[in-house]
Amino acid sequence: MSVLVFAETTGGGIAETSLETVAFARGLDAEVDAVVVGELPHGAAGELAEHGVRTVHHATGDAFGAYSGAAWATAVQAAAGQSRVVLAPGTPRGLEVLAHLAARLDVAMAANVVSVVPDDELVVTRQVLGGSVLEEMQLPDTPALLAVAGHAVEAAPAPAPAVGTVRELTPEVAPADLVARVVSVEPVEAVDSSGLTTASVVVGAGRGAGGPDGFGAVSELAELLGGALGVSRVVTSLGWRPHHEQIGQTGSRISPDLYIPCGISGAIQHWAGCASSKTILAINTDPEAPMVTKATYAVIGDMHEIVPAINEELRRRRG
Amino acid sequence: MTDVLVCIKRVPDVGGEVTLTADGQGVDARHVGFTVSEHENCAVELAVQVAAATGGRATVLTLGPAEAVEQLRSALAVGCDDAVLIEVCEPGSYGPADVAREIAAVVADRGDELVLLGNDAADTGDFQVGIRLAHLLGRPVVNGVRTVAVTDGVLVARGDGVDGVETYELPLPAVATVLEGGVEPRYPSLKGRMKAKKAPIDTRAPRSAPAGSGRVRLLLPPAQPSTVDVLGEGPQAAAAVVDLLERMGVAR
Ligand SMILES: Cc1cc2nc3c(=O)[nH]c(=O)nc-3n(C[C@H](O)[C@H](O)[C@H](O)COP(=O)(O)OP(=O)(O)OC[C@H]3O[C@@H](n4cnc5c(N)ncnc54)[C@H](O)[C@@H]3O)c2cc1C
User: What ipTM did this prediction achieve?
Assistant: First the structure.
């Protein structure tokens, strides 16, 4: 049995979420192949081999220059062959490409998958309702399509690396699949200028900030720690801060070493975006707030007194 | 003139604790209200804007139980002109492919040139109804966009991509799925609410029996006992916090 992973690249190699998906695929006890569409960065095939990928299908051609979900799905379909399962990272493109494949093959697709229930038929466990509930779902079709939730497993090299043969593909793409295609891209600075999703420290602020003027001290703390500022939905809904700073189910998903949520209650939709933080230090007036009870550390009290005191102590010790 | 159909889903409004029904097939919604995803609220706002800008009509659609009229009326109150309910007794038995097929039948019948949906439903999070719908209709689809506008029969849609803000341009008819954050959904006016109360609802029966969602059962993640280490209360805790930051190596 073989399975296929749709792998995304970043400038330097294979995206971390795609390597997680490869690790997840290895758990299926099958030969793991991968497909990369468009440019294959130098060393990326070797990286996949190190993570246990047997064959790297590399799809190229004019059709894959600019991104189109439908066209990319054609490439994945061409590489899929007899694969029992096709996996994608739970990223916007991973989900989009997989959904095109699901529609085209008329097979079921599961999103937000965290594990597989061993059985003769494929049953997966996936997150629903922003991760507060799990669903066991049957995937009776071949191929079974599943998008792996971020951080469901950790990326790790395979115990025994594979050969990682690269196989070049130039699949034919139907003109209709190129109609919805990116025509222009404005550089990334505009989207995540503060580096919220990659910061190793994130300071969060919610309704407890009290108003648009309540973010001075938290911004300063983020700066002192070389981190980024993130906020809750209440904050963006009220227009106190821009939407691109929102953490949660419908905002950014963060996974810093340290997250310091201040005046955030920890609703499940917010938790969905910060659950992969390694350590959480909650600052809240309410000791019973879910964010406090789920945190590693907490300070109970008013963020408008506590955060400035922390900033001052940090500056004092730095002299 | 662009007629826009915007699709929404009635979902339980859970913020904190969730309880499941005894058979494990659904969320116990007896003590919670219902809402729609913020993605869909933004899609409704975009539908109303596109219809107004082009002199077309904005129609809101849902597949759901009779009670989902509540969500349809909310969309009528913020500017949708018409509402369609595909009434089903057990919406949970409709998988994403079933829902796409039912919506496709309505679109084929009505001919709306632009169909907007949320990027993913707030409850099941399937991320696929819009794309399946587009395939059934033979239309192009863009995903996860924050804004859409129509000029001279061309849909211009923008959203965040891996390398920056991506712009798509495609001819109508088309399908687009919307992520929240590009527009501010408006609040209903008193007039809007009055109009919504009386508006007729185009209620339809589903075309075919659902194939199902593949759900075996729902379960709650194991409860994690709180292991929080409270460092202190009030500003006096600052020293303990900075000690921790230094231990973690983030105080630099
Ligand atoms: C479909 C859907 C999607 C959603 N997506 C998201 C999302 O992506 N991200 C998101 O964040 N939310 C999301 N939400 C909203 C979510 O349910 C909560 O409403 C929201 O996260 C609450 O924000 P909050 O914690 O800032 O506010 P609240 O829940 O009001 O909590 C405020 C907290 O601040 C504390 N506090 C008050 N004053 C102070 C003070 N002076 N000092 C210290 N603490 C103080 C309070 O004790 C309380 O715990 C979504 C909801 C739905 C239905």
Answer: 0.93
